[in-house]
Design a protein that fits this description.
It is built from 9 helices and 7 strands; from the N terminus they run βαβααββαβαββαααα. With 225 residues, it is an alpha/beta fold.
C-alpha cells in the first residue's frame, strides 16, 4: 500500500457532502474519521485524517465543470484524495441517491485516481427507508471507479442521532472502520496466534515423511474412532 511509502502513516481522507451547518452528514463523517484513526492505531499503525467538505466548494466545482481547471481549495481537496491511502465518503440522500454535489466532486477527478483505493461508504437521511442507497447507488459508483469498497457501509437516519438511539450506529461505525483499517494493511497490535503456526510449502518439504512410513500407514488401514 502507499501508506508504507510515507513512514507507515496511513492517510485517510473524509469526503463529506452535507449542505447544512451543522449537518448529520458531517457528524457521521467525523465519527467515521475518528473511528478509522482509532482502528489504525489499534493495529499498531499511525493515522492522519483530513476532511474535505464539499459545501464550500460548490462554486469551484461548477467552474471546474465549465473550464476544466480546478483552483484553490478544490485543487487542494483533489490532491488530498490523490495522495490518500483510503477514503471515507459520506453523502446525504437526495431523490433516493447520493447528492449532486457529492457526484460532481467524483466526476471531476482524473480517471484512475481511485484505482485500488479502499473506500468506506456512508449516507444519511431522514428515515431508514433510504438505507438501500448504499448498495443501489454508492457501492456501484465506487465499483465503477475501480475503488475497493469495504464490506460494511454505514447508513444513519435522524433517529440514530437522537436521545433514544439504540447504539447500533456506533457498532456499525466501528465495524466499518475496522474493515477499512484492515484494507490499509500495516502492523497489527495483536497478531493471530495461528499465524505463527502456519506452514508454507517450503515447510512441508523441509522434513518430508519417508516413503516407507507412508506405506506403513496405508497398510495399517484407516484409524478407528
Amino acid at each position: 500500500m502507499s501508506g508504507v511509502e510515507h513512514g507507515g502513516v496511513r492517510r485517510v481522507v473524509v469526503v463529506t457532502a452535507g449542505l447544512s451547518v451543522p449537518s448529520s452528514t458531517r457528524l457521521l463523517a467525523d465519527m467515521l474519521g475518528e473511528a478509522s484513526a482509532a482502528a489504525i492505531t489499534n493495529r499498531g499503525g499511525e493515522a492522519q485524517v483530513d476532511v474535505v467538505e464539499l459545501r464550500p466548494l460548490a462554486h469551484a466545482l461548477a467552474d471546474r465543470l465549465l473550464t476544466g481547471f480546478a483552483t484553490g481549495e478544490l485543487a487542494e481537496g483533489i490532491e488530498k484524495v490523490r495522495h490518500a491511502d483510503g477514503l471515507v465518503v459520506v453523502s446525504p440522500v437526495f431523490s433516493a441517491s447520493y447528492s449532486g454535489l457529492f457526484k460532481t466532486f467524483f466526476d471531476v477527478l482524473e480517471p484512475g485516481m481511485l484505482d485500488g483505493k479502499p473506500v468506506l461508504i456512508a449516507a444519511t437521511a431522514g428515515t431508514a427507508r433510504h438505507s438501500l442507497v448504499l448498495d443501489h447507488a454508492l457501492r456501484p459508483l465506487f465499483a465503477y471507479l475501480r475503488a475497493v469498497v469495504v464490506p460494511t457501509g454505514v447508513f444513519a437516519a435522524s433517529e440514530d442521532f437522537g436521545a433514544n438511539a439504540d447504539g447500533s450506529l456506533h457498532k456499525r461505525v466501528e465495524r466499518a472502520a475496522g474493515e477499512l483499517a484492515a484494507l490499509l494493511g500495516g502492523p497489527t497490535a495483536a497478531p493471530r496466534a495461528a499465524s505463527a503456526e502456519r506452514r508454507g510449502v517450503e515447510d512441508e518439504f523441509a522434513e518430508p515423511t519417508p516413503f516407507e512410513a507412508l506405506l506403513r500407514r496405508a497398510s495399517e488401514g484407516p484409524p478407528q474412532f
